[in-house]
Every structure is written in structure tokens, then in C-alpha cells.
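Run log, item B.
One chain of 453 residues. Sequence copied directly from the ordering sheet:
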Amino acid sequence: MDGFKRLFNRFLVERGPSIEWGKVEPAGSTMMHDYSKLPKLDTENIELVRSQLEKLVVLKLNGGLGTSMGCKGPKSLIAVRGEDTFLDLTIKQIQALNVKYNVKVPLVLMNSFNTHVDTQKILWKYQNCGVPIFTFQQSCYPRINTESLLPVDNDLENKEAWYPPGHGDVYEAFYNSNYLKKFLDEGKKYVFVSNIDNLGANVDLSILNSLLTREESDPCEFLIEVTNKTRADVKGGTLINYENKIRLLEIAQVPKDHIDEFTSVSKFEIFNTNNMWINMPAIHRLTEQRAWNMEIIRNEKATESGLKVIQLETAAGAAIKHFEGAIGVNVPRSRFLPVKLTSDLLLVMSNLYGIQNGTLTINPKRQFPGVPLVKLGQDKFKKVQNFLDRFANIPDLLELDHLTVSGDVTFGKNVVLKGTVIIIAHHGERVDIASGSILENKIVSGNLRIVDH
């Protein structure tokens, strides 16, 4: 509970904004690197790549539940491609590396108290997969009553009174698990940290090679992957130059009268993917020094009984300011493929992507840059099971640009969607898209029921 005490004391003492907007500048070329300009690596040089992979640990942030998609239990156990879950795909990715290069890159899962038991129960199925798997539980902090600023309850059995304090807890929780020391003793150097629901966050050999080859001349203790903003990403955190130091800036830190400037693609072109490559000796050093001082995120919630509470959280990327030689690397968009809603699930389940060894790649038959913008009405499509029930099979999306679906809508088999398609069933109405339909630049509304016979 020492971590909570330090965080809560800071919350009581610190006042005012964590940054002065006048000192904020976009991160320059010395802080930001282009992925295409990283040193070239011959991935068929088995001995070299093996020697580098032997210094790597993969850590997935596995604390989230599937509630945003109407599911119970850990989000990582939701099937996203055939019968494969997020966890299955992660393990298949590492398994393929381990087989090809004859190594044993370990997978570490940072669970929360919400996900730990269910995750432990499923791990038996991976006993012979060739990937060493380790788990630890992140911290558990008490929720604070908004009015009294006192803990809601000290009863550990009352789950409503406790919360996992965000992924900024990964450093101390990893240290406290004793796995950090174990891996350092084994000669490991870097840990690749990412969200388990980001299907694009696989081990990138070029990034690992870049980190290890610059160790002597220009060491980098922290590398964070960023990618170019789209319309959907304008609120995402970005990297800035703040008093000649690289920092992560989140929208919650931005003064209200500068929000438009922050969301401007012309000034801040990139956003944080939360894929991080971190030097493990540096994590050990900074934890021993109690140096962690990430910006506090005040997350206001309400319990089921309606009590207003505060959760004090931190973000892992905000620790960038503590590491020596920290940089951002602008990576291809393919390394950011998060699944937060069923609209994301529709994309990854479709023919937009092919899959090999757990890694999704864009279908070469897709002739347009980027992926379609999909918006599915939350009243009928939010829950995964409801979503699946509304599709006889997943439509062909290869030539789709934009899809909006609202209301009581179902899709038959072998539907093809092209261009911009908007389908709206108003209250009391229903739209059934018949099997074999091809909709190209269409707006469909009102009642439409075509029954196959």
C-alpha cells in the first residue's frame, strides 16, 4: 500500500496544471525517429536474431475486463478471430518466433484482481506451447469517497471499494513480483510492454535490433511507438518537447482553451500506441530510487449504489521522462490495431485481414490506404453475442470506406459492402439485409425485410 500512500499524498499536495502550455513544443527530430530509417536487419541471420531475442521479455497488460463489449471476465479471453482469443494470438506470435529462432522468449501477463483468477484457470492449455508464461498481479488501491476523501471501505471482499491503478503501476508491480530480478539474472535487457487488445503489437525485430546495436554509442532506456493521427485519434496522447525533455502529453493535462490546438493534426501529428520497449536495468534502478513521479490521472466514477468516488491512476507512457536517452519511433499504422468495441471486432474478423502465426496483416487485395471507419449502434451491437447474432457471416469489407449501422439491423450471408454505406432502422422498424446483397454507396432506412425462399 506504500505506492497508494505516495500517490494519495501527491494528490493532496499538488495543485494547478502539471504543465505550462507556453513551454509545450512538438517533439523534434532528435526525440522522434522514423521507423523506415532504423538500421536494416537480416531476419534470416538466425544466430544474430537469436542472440538478440535471448535478451527480450514480452509483457502484456492484461488487467481489463470485457465489459465494454458486453462480456464477463478478462477481455483477453474474448474470441476475436475464429475461436482464437487475444491471448491465443499473442502466444501464437511468440511461439512462431521461438520455433524459428530456437529461443524461449517468455510472456509475462500483468493481471489485475479482476482478471487474475480467470486467467490462471486458462493457462493449463498452453503448457506445451513452447512459450514460458509468467503472471503477476498489479496493485490494488482503495477508491476514495469524492466528498470525504476517505477510503470507501477497507473490506477486501468488497470489490466495489477497490480498483487497479492503471498501467503506470507496471514498473513497481513488475519489480515487486521478483520476475524483474529473475530476468535480469538471466541476462535479459529489454521488456516489450503493450496492451493485450492491440492485435498489431507483436515483437518487432527491427526495433529490438536498433535498441541493442546502439547500447554502446547512444543508449536508449525507453522507446515508445507512435503513429500518425487519423480523425479517430485526435484525442490520443502525443509526445512533446517540454523544457528540452521528451514527455507524454495526455488530453487531460491540456488547458481547456488549448484543446483545439492539442487535437490539431497540423501541430501534433502523432499519437501514442502504448507499445513500449523499456530497459529492465533502468526499471530496477528507478524503482530502487523511488523515482516514479508520473502525472496523476483523476478518474471519477460512481459505484453501483450511486456513490461518487475517485480513482487515482497513472499511465505507463508518462514514465518516459524518467529514462535516459528516451525516444519515440513513428511506426506503421499496422502496429496499432486495438479492439475496444464490436465495430473494431467487425474489422478484424473480416476479409480485410489475413492471419499467419497469430499476426494479422492487411489483405493485399485492399486497394485503399487505411481501414474503413465503422460505427455500429451500441443499443443493438454493443455486446459481442448480440453482434454475432446479427451477422449470418461477416460481410466482405475489402472496398468499404465507411459503414454506419443504427437500430434493429441484421445481415444475411455473403453480403458485400463498398464505399459509404449507411443503414438506419428507426424505433419500431427493422432492416434485414438479404443474403448475397451488394451495397455500394447506399443509404438504407425504414423497414426492409427480404426473406430468402
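Observations after the first pass:
- The chain has a mean pLDDT of 92.
- Residues 86-101 form the longest helix (16 residues).
Flagged for discussion on Thursday.
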